[in-house]
Specification:
Number of strands: 0
Shape: flat
Radius of gyration: 19 Å
Order of helices and strands: HHHHH
């Protein structure tokens, strides 16, 4: 396939596991971000404030913005983004947390197709 025939869109997958050492600080930061958003309707603001107060993972979702990750990368424009957060039981020594696990599954699928 030549360069002109390839898609100009690239799906970039990023998975992060964060250790929250100060949940109150995360919640305060999220509440600050929400209060600074002058365009957010009052009803949505009330819902967002309740959500980040009840759930640290939700607070992180308000603080981590995919646009911030790529906004200064030359030659690219964010076309679409979605993200979510959830509490997890993390054990870095467990084989279930192999960072290359998804890549290995994709390689296996390619071997079967190829």
């Amino acid at each position: 396939m030549s360069t002109s025939e390839t898609s100009q869109f690239v799906r970039l997958r990023v998975e992060l596991v964060l250790e929250v050492g100060d949940a109150d600080a995360v919640t305060r930061a999220a509440l600050g971000r929400i209060s600074d958003d002058a365009d957010m309707p009052a009803e949505e603001r009330a819902h967002a404030e309740a959500a980040v107060t009840e759930d640290t993972a939700e607070a992180l979702a308000y603080l981590v913005d995919p646009f911030d990750l790529v906004s200064e990368v030359p030659g690219v424009e964010l076309a679409q983004a979605s993200w979510s957060s959830e509490p997890v039981d993390y054990d870095p020594d467990s084989p279930d947390w192999d960072i290359d696990e998804d890549d290995a599954e994709e390689d296996d699928e390619e071997d079967v197709r190829g």
